[in-house]
Design a protein that fits this description.
Layout lengths: L12 E5 L6 E5 L3 H4 L1 E3 L5 E3 L5 H12 L1 H12 L12 H12 L20 H11 L4 H11 L2 H9 L1
Antiparallel strand pairs: 1-2, 3-4
Helix pairs in contact: 2-3
Length: about 160
C-alpha cells in the first residue's frame, strides 16, 4: 500500500473560452456561472457581457418580422413571464436576461449572438470565402507559400 504525505485532491480543473471575445476562465471545479459565461444549446460558450438582448431582438425581427419574433419570445419565456405584446417593451430585455441566467448551460439559439449571426467568427468567414470564390484551402496555402517566408508574407499582407 502506498501512503502519500503530500496534498491530494479529487477536484478537477475546468476551463472555458468565450467564442466571441476569446476570454478564458479556469479553476478547480468551476462552472459556467462561476466563469461569468453561458452556453447556448448549440455549444457556443459566451461571456455574459457579450450578450446584448437589444441586439438579439433586433436581429430576430430582421430575420422573422415583428409578429413572428413576438411569438418566438413568448414561447421561449413560457408561463413564468407575462406575455410580450411589443418588441419595445421595457421589461422584455430584463426578462430575457433573467431567463437565460436561470440555466447557464442551455441558452436558446434564438438568443445566441453566434447562432443569430450577430457575431461571425473567423472560421465561418473563411469557410464562406472559400465557398463563395470556389477556392480550396490547400491551394490557398500553396499560393501563400509561394510568396516566401513569414516576414515576406507579412510584408505582402500590409501592402
Amino acid at each position: 500500500m502506498k501512503i502519500s504525505l503530500d496534498f491530494i485532491t479529487n477536484s478537477s480543473s475546468c476551463s472555458f473560452i468565450c467564442d466571441i471575445c476569446g476570454k478564458s476562465s479556469s479553476g478547480l471545479d468551476i462552472g459556467l456561472s462561476d466563469a461569468g459565461m453561458i452556453e447556448c444549446m448549440n455549444g457556443h460558450i459566451i461571456c455574459e457581457g457579450e450578450i446584448n438582448m437589444h441586439d438579439s431582438i433586433e436581429r430576430l425581427v430582421e430575420l422573422n418580422g415583428e409578429e413572428k419574433t413576438l411569438k418566438i419570445l413568448n414561447k421561449l419565456l413560457g408561463e413564468n413571464y407575462e406575455i410580450v405584446t411589443s418588441i419595445n417593451d421595457d421589461e422584455l430585455c430584463s426578462n430575457l436576461q433573467e431567463f437565460i441566467a436561470e440555466d447557464e448551460y442551455d441558452m436558446s439559439e434564438k438568443l445566441c449572438p453566434l447562432c443569430l449571426g450577430i457575431y461571425i467568427n473567423d472560421s465561418i468567414k473563411i469557410d464562406f470565402l472559400l465557398k463563395k470564390y470556389n477556392e480550396n484551402i490547400d491551394k490557398i496555402a500553396e499560393d501563400i507559400r509561394m510568396i516566401g517566408d513569414l516576414n515576406t508574407i507579412k510584408k505582402f499582407l500590409k501592402e
